[in-house]
Amino acid sequence: MHSSVPDTPDDGDISDVNILWSGMSDAIASLDFSCISDTVLCQLIESSKENTMGMCHGVTFLGDSMLSFASNNIHEFTPESLCQLGHSLEALSSLLPMLFTLHEKASGEYRRRTSKNEIK
């Protein structure tokens, strides 16, 4: 039976956590990109780069907003907003490594094809 509660490290283990790991990242790393068309490969490279940058901009905005709230003495959040923020950050922590792996893997395949003059 699958547990809906993920395994999480104890506070003492936090420094040992590999921040570039996620289950999705491992799944992407195991994919064979050699059978993907050049067009789709380029779309994967561009899409993963754009989405990673978009998420980073979103997190930066969130950080700036939190700092602005603190400097303006806004210290209270509803349980719902904290829950939404928590779920959003959990999703980001899983998606960013996956997008990084996707971009690296697709870029590596593109470089391989370019070096062998296989790009059409």
List the helices and strands and how they pair.
Blueprint: H1 23-29, H2 38-71, H3 79-115
Element order: H for helix, E for strand: HHH
Query: How many H/I helical runs?
Result: 3
User: Share of helix among residues?
Assistant: 55-70%
Mean pLDDT: 79
DSSP summary, beta strand count: 0
**Distance linking N and C termini:** 47 Å
Unreliable stretches (pLDDT < 50, length at least 5) are 1-17
Provide the structure class.
mainly alpha
Radius of gyration: 19 Å
**Proportion of residues in β-strands:** under 5%
Shape annotation: elongated
Q: Biggest sheet: strands, sense, closure?
A: none
Q: What does the model show?
A:
By secondary structure, the chain is mostly helical. It has a domain at 36-118. The chain is 65% helix and 0% strand. The chain has three helices and no strands. It has helices at residues 23-29, 38-71, 79-115. Helix 1 runs parallel beside helix 3 and helix 2 (38-71) packs antiparallel against helix 3. The N and C termini lie far apart (47 Å). The model is unreliable at 1-17 (pLDDT under 50).
